[in-house]
Amino acid sequence: xxxxxxxxxxxxxxxxxxxxxxxxxxxxxxxxxxxxxxxxxxxxxxxxxxxxxxxxxxxxxxxxxxxxxxxxxxxxxxxxxxxxxxxxxxxxxxxxxxxxxxxxxxxxxxxxxxxxxxxxxxxxxxxxxxxxxxxxxxxxxxxxxxxxxxxxxxxxxxxxxxxxxxxxxxxxxxxxxxxxxxxxxxxxxxxxxxxxxxxxxxxxxxxxxxxxxxxxxxxxxxxxxxxxxxxxxxxxxxxxxxxxxxxxxxxxxxxxxxxxxxxxxxxxxxxxxxxxxxxxxxxxxxxxxxxxxxxxxxxxxxxxxxxxxxxxxxxxxxxxxxxxxxxxxxxxxxxxxxxxxxxxxxxxxxxxxxxxxxxxxxxxxxxxxxxxxxxxxxxxxxxxxxxxxxxxxxxxxxxxxxxxxxxxxxxxxxxxxxxxxxxxxxxxxxxxxxxxxxxxxxxxxxxxxxxxxxxxxxxxxxxxxxxxxxxxxxxxxxxxxxxxxxxxxxxxxx
Amino acid sequence: xxxxxxxxxxxxxxxxxxxxxxxxxxxxxxxxxxxxxxxxxxxxxxxxxxxxxxxxxxxxxxxxxxxxxxxxxxxxxxxxxxxxxxxxxxxxxxxxxxxxxxxxxxxxxxxxxxxxxxxxxxxxxxxxxxxxxxxxxxxxxxxxxxxxxxxxxxxxxxxxxxxxxxxxxxxxxxxxxxxxxxxxxxxxxxxxxxxxxxxxxxxxxxxxxxxxxxxxxxxxxxxxxxxxxxxxxxxxxxxxxxxxxxxxxxxxxxxxxxxxxxxxxxxxxxxxxxxxxxxxxxxxxxxxxxxxxxxxxxxxxxxxxxxxxxxxxxxxxxxxxxxxxxxxxxxxxxxxxxxxxxxxxxxxxxxxxxxxxxxxxxxxxxxxxxxxxxxxxxxxxxxxxxxxxxxxxxxxxxxxxxxxxxxxxxxxxxxxxxxxxxxxxxxxxxxxxxxxxxxxxxxxxxxxxxxxxxxxxxxxxxxxxxxxxxxxxxxxxxxxxxxxxxxxxxxxxx
Lengths: 494, 494
Known about the structure:
The structure is a homodimer. With about 500 residues, chain A is α+β, with helices and mostly antiparallel strands.
């Protein structure tokens, strides 16, 4: 007979692909979001916070860069059989809000939004199913001045959170130029935009992979297709050599200045009206940014930027960190993209039938934090609290009073609230909390009206081998009157 | 034949029970959370941010105050057939974290957490399915000093966010005292705590309803049961009159001072060891708080506080706002509870089998914001941006440059990015944005190198009938050199 088993205990685990954030991981992100919000605010953007849950109908059932419906999101049916889902980005909820409140919102509507989004995708190293986005969008502004503004704001945001000029670049391109190039290559028919959609998709993805596949790999994808190291074949766009040359020329169109790049792009788009309009828009953006002092060391026109998403209709932009970091294997690599966006004129139309021009950017806050930590510009431990130790558990009220006095003076402080029996455990706890000072009052001190302050930072330094001078100059332990507690702690904290 | 219909457009609506937050609703909550976090930090608490999604297994399938499993949460099955759900509070994820990381976290572990939680409940006026909580808990501290600390911190938090002393009260009670009273009334058997569980539940809920039902209603529930106005019958606990008297006496046990209340409670619990322990704990808490200066005008022992949740095992506390507001119908009423908590020693045990003593508080941030707005202490409009109007769309770069100059000087500013054709629309937009100043530069001004500043706040005041003196002293419109833009705007903003 099988033995009876007591019911299995629940596993204390996050679901696959989710994680917890502790201590400075939380506060550093909060501080970064706050700093970016200040920039967005200064540019006239107003905050919007939508809820995590939307109807699948409003979300559109699609992740923007995934073709399969109902995949990529966490969804469920509510009691009315309506499908609900967690938002996968902050743009889809904005489109819903812009449609729902179109009679009340100012137009143009500049809004920023910050918060977690959820993707039901395969998690991987550093890839989680919940992560933060930090977006700013302008809805109802047809002018590319709105796109230029977003680029300037992105540049300001990066510098505000601690990425110095020279360590990043905002690259700008225009989908219309790309469409013009496609037209020149015989892959775009302005009169029937649905023709060659598949081929253009392949070209778009090929361009996006230039970094990874190199020129030869992209050429293969533009032509017959490409076989990778494992033998898998990716279908090509089937372009003739002359057609492929035009596309390759586009990717290499970047010149020393924005003006020269624009000239080269004009050559490439030939007589395509769409392409010429796109070049004109890039020139306008460059002029606006130049006038505000955003030179090519911060924002530049770069035809190799295409952005993966299908919904962009005009300018697209991407911010890249240009410094190198060491990856998991210790190899140097460029950190890469931390933000991107562009103009999308059709998202609100889904709801209202009317096209509403919109443009915006999304900053990948978690990646930006990772970058700053990789550069050692962030990730310090927060200062721990002063720990009031407990020598006599019957005098808890006294110890709590000491901590209260310190806190009332603005000093972070707490009483040790574990079992006080073993004094060593109290000091171990203080160490784990990175506490700068332990306050000690046993029976003798209590009778004398004194307390002992133990300098734990100096103590640690002495343990690591401080010099004799240091030791003498600043004793690791002092006995002081109880009445001087706040003043002496403040002095010791420096 | 039925006409072909084009596919229905998606509805631009939030799901039932969810809502959007705009502008100051977002920033005021953020500021409040930040202010409370500062207090928690000063008390030595560290931030923790868990993800929105947990396994149903880890959440425990139950809302703490709901008896039915799998109700009250938003849940779904993932691709491995595991049930996942949105967290319904911040305590269940803490219990999971405390178990999962028990070898790494300091002990005691003081943590705070802030964020949205989700309840799959019937929404109502002011009741939403997503709302914010702001919790602080100490895990691994058996001493009631930890409970006293939480009460003091709650008091400090309320004052920090703008509830002055006298407008709130933190009430403290102890479940052990209640259990002692139950024992004295013959409803609690320390040797077999499962006896009379149903009766105790009815008594607990009856006490919790004293405010609403009055003494007679509670007496009915303690005895045979109660028929409400609609004729519905609520089952009673079936107590004899003498038993009911003891319970009623408990609710009325509050005296002028904590000491006198404790004396009265001692009488009521009689010889119950559990009850006497509870009274002793209340006395310890009162002593600790007194010593720190938290008198009865801030924190008081009040036996009528029981808290609905079943999982509390010791001290329970509740913060109530004592001022009156006007409800939706214009009637005066007390604002009521905005925070609550208590000691729960069994939540971590679910995972590990080992009891871990814990205590904590949850502040209902959205209710607190509503209270401050009801009192007119919050809810002002944010200052709108300075609006640079567009008189000549070919000089967009000039206008963008003006806005940039203002922003670089720290002044919130933007260029009007809608269709500039109708100047009236630009001023209407400025009005909608609560803009203080419109900057105007037409062809004439451009030729002269000047700009016009229009004081929109003064303009509005004049429209409302400002005095002639005011009008003269401060003209609503000035023409200034372009080079003085920043200085003059700053002067006008005051």
